[in-house]
Amino acid sequence: MDDQRFRKAMGKFATGVTIVTTKTGEDIHGMTANAFMSVSLNPKLVLISIDEDANMNRYIQDEKRFAVSILHEKQKYLSAYFAGQVKERKTIAFANFLEMPVIKEALVTLVCDVADTIVAGDHTLFLGKVQDLAINDGLPLTFFDGDYQQFATDIKLDG
């Protein structure tokens, strides 16, 4: 099968949208990612997948620390910005959580220390040990079939 067909099939899996951040000296780096998942409750572990060619891969490898901000439905602009879809440079006002830059008013922010790295194909999987997290109310920004979607809140299950 070709790459486009595989990408289209994987796009049928609805996901939330995150921004992964890290800091090198005084420089803050961020990128949009939907390749994020919870791995373990004890110890508290999450996983992010970063392209081998992405600058973020090197930054996280060097710093051994990263943050994940799970975006609120009203943060679509930030997702597009950190995905490189917005060409103009903006100054983003980050919040500071455990000395790590995170997205203000995100649904969830987590700060992680890298517990392990695994090269898998053309990506590096970073297993992060969660140091702490913060939770806010709201609905998630979701992504499905190559586009942002509204989160349905009126679904009723019969039975």
UniProtKB/TrEMBL annotation:
It comes from the Bacteria. InterPro entries: Flavin_Rdtase-like_dom (IPR002563), NADH-dep_flavin_reductase (IPR050268), Split_barrel_FMN-bd (IPR012349). Keywords: Oxidoreductase. It is an enzyme of class 1 (oxidoreductase). Its EC number is 1.-.-.-. Coiled coil: none annotated. Residues 10-150 form the Flavin reductase like domain. The keyword Oxidoreductase applies. GO terms for molecular function: oxidoreductase activity. PANTHER family: FLAVIN REDUCTASE, FMN REDUCTASE (NADH) RUTF. This is Flavin reductase family protein. It comes from Paracerasibacillus soli.
